Every structure is written in structure tokens, then in C-alpha cells.
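RECORD TYPE: inverse folding
INPUT: C-alpha cells
STRUCTURE:
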């Protein structure tokens, strides 16, 4: 019993230290984006491309933590989408913009059964690839839900 308590305390300390090393970001920060229409030669049509604010550009390549609503799109659990809003209000349902979702590429794929989750990973800003979301959280790990 004593070993279990010590192990639990150690896990909590490690989670707390890991969380402290990552910057928690807010969806309001990610909303600081403008749009420019450009022609895409591959698809032979115009697309809206993001122009990130300086506050968002400062996060590119940084390890961050963000909490949101999980939209599982991949059966294998490797490709997930995190949304600022619940499923019924998300970008894919037409009530929010593309800045309200984040593509999550898991470090170790597994099934997640919670609807609201916190992830930690390296944020990548995607300004050019229309086949991916504009925010990509690479090498992501599921974190304990902390406020």
C-alpha cells in the first residue's frame, strides 16, 4: 500500500513538472489570424490562407498545452482533432472558423474516451498545406486534466 501511495505521488509530481515546462495557450490567442485569398495550382482554385499574428507566430515550434473538445476522426487514434467548441458547435458543423480547431498527431496512438481533454505537444503553424489544418500539435501527449 505504501509503495502505491509513493508511486501515485511521484506520478503527480512528474505531471506537475511536465505541465509547468509547457506554456498553456488559450483558444483566444489562436483566433488572432487574418485571411488572404490565393490561387492553388495543385487544385486549380482559390483558397483562403492564414496570416498569423505576431502573438501566434511566437508560438510556432514551441511546446504548448491546450484544452479542448475531442473530435476523434481516425479509428486508429493517431490523428485527432481538438476543437475549441463541442461537436455540435465545431468548425466542421459550420458554426465556427478554422482557427477553432487543431490537428493532433499523437506521440503514442491510443484510444481516448474523454470528450474534454488537454494535450501537450509542439505547435506547428501551417500556412500553405490546404490538406491539413492550420494548427498542428506534433508529438502530442494526453495530459491530466488540470485547471
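DESIGNED SEQUENCE:
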Amino acid at each position: 500500500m505504501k509503495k502505491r501511495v509513493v508511486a501515485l505521488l511521484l506520478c503527480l509530481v512528474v505531471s506537475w513538472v511536465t505541465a509547468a515546462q509547457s506554456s498553456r495557450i488559450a483558444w483566444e490567442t489562436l483566433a488572432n489570424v487574418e485571411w488572404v485569398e490565393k490561387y492553388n495550382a495543385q487544385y486549380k482554385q482559390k483558397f483562403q490562407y492564414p496570416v498569423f499574428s505576431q502573438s501566434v507566430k511566437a508560438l510556432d515550434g514551441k511546446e504548448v498545452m491546450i484544452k479542448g473538445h475531442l473530435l476523434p476522426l481516425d479509428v486508429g487514434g493517431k490523428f485527432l482533432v481538438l476543437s475549441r467548441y463541442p461537436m455540435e458547435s465545431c468548425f466542421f458543423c459550420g458554426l465556427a472558423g478554422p482557427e477553432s480547431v487543431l490537428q493532433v498527431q499523437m506521440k503514442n496512438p491510443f484510444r481516448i474516451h474523454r470528450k474534454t481533454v488537454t494535450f501537450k505537444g509542439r505547435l506547428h503553424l501551417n500556412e500553405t498545406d490546404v490538406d491539413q489544418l492550420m494548427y498542428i500539435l506534433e508529438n502530442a501527449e494526453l495530459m491530466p486534466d488540470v485547471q
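NOTES: Residues 3-20 have pLDDT under 50 and may be disordered.
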